[in-house]
Amino acid sequence: MRKNVHLLLIDPQNDFCHPDGSLVVPGAYADMERLCALHARAGMAIDAIHVTVDSHSPLHISSPMMWENDDGKSPEPFTAIRMGDVVDGRWRTRRPDQQMRAFAYLKALESRGRGPHVVLPEHCIAGSWGANVYEPLQHHLEIWARRHLTRVNFVQKGMNCFTDYVSALEAQVPDPLDPSTSLNKALLHALAPADIVLVAGEATSHGVAATMRQTIANLPPTYARKFVLLTDCMSAMAGFAAQGEAFIEEMKALGVQTAASESVELHHAAENA
């Protein structure tokens, strides 16, 4: 019997994947080229495609523009901001009316053991080139949608200015006033019928790792074996290679499979997996 094959792509966007991106992941460009090759060779055997996309406003908790010091200067990218930094006045929100919400976020983040908060370069600004899906991949997605007479399931995240995302399934600190920041049960429901879920995207150390951990934790244990990490279609952020490798080993221990994209034969898998 033919297997139901899904593809889950984590943040395959220009700012992460293109050499000119503002938060480019080393190796991501080659990852996308290999993913495009897989699509060209066997993409029509995929039954459903889910693509998570980061989408921010310039004034966002993770953006330098949100913050300023006593001199009115924004923090440099990759500056860590802790709750104590706000209490002591080292950093404050540029808009005074946002101070309490930002402080509440930092407090909740640290209480969950997910701190400190790290300011990032502006990236994936909604409507910008950097937020667009890597163009050659987008071309393949459009061909797939037309031939299957269906749509790619694009899953947007990040528009709430007062909480950040690592996992595509849930914000670091869900906002009780914004249901979109809570656990994305719709995506879990969409993945559940699949027999095989191929996973690719960026970054192994961050977005892919957090998304997979949360996905596996919120599906029945037997579902782990359905997932296949395309390890040559994902890379770690610079300086986080060890974390990326540890994530792969963690997933394998849970029963998640790994494969190189060139070894994936979807028709064969559909018949015999």
Word description of this protein:
The chain has helices at 14-17, 28-42, 83-87, 99-111, 135-148, 185-191, 207-217, 241-253, 266-272, and strands at residues 5-10, 48-54, 67-68, 80-81, 92-93, 117-118, 153-157, 196-201, 227-230, 257-259. Helix 2 runs parallel beside helix 5 (135-148). Mean pLDDT is 94; it is low at 268-273. The chain has 9 helices and 10 strands. The strands form 3 sheets. A 6-stranded parallel β-sheet has the order 7-2-1-8-9-10, sandwiched between helices. The chain has a two-stranded antiparallel sheet with strand order 3-5. A two-stranded antiparallel ribbon has the order 4-6.
Mean pLDDT: 94
Largest sheet entry = 6 strands, parallel
* DSSP strand count: 10
| Shape category | globular
Order of helices and strands: EHHEEEHEHEHEHEHEHEH
- Contiguous uncertain segments of 5+ residues: 268-273
User: In percent, how much strand structure appears in the residues?
Assistant: 5-15%
Strand order of the largest sheet: 7-2-1-8-9-10
Which structural class best describes the helix and strand composition?
A: alpha/beta
As a percent range, the share of helical residues equals 25-40%
In whole angstroms, how far apart are the ends?
10 Å
Radius of gyration: 19 Å
Give the count of helical stretches.
9
What is this structure's SSE topology?
Layout: E1 5-10, H1 14-17, H2 28-42, E2 48-54, E3 67-68, E4 80-81, H3 83-87, E5 92-93, H4 99-111, E6 117-118, H5 135-148, E7 153-157, H6 185-191, E8 196-201, H7 207-217, E9 227-230, H8 241-253, E10 257-259, H9 266-272
Parallel strand pairs: 1-2, 1-8, 2-7, 8-9, 9-10
Antiparallel strand pairs: 3-5, 4-6
Helix pairs in contact: 2-5
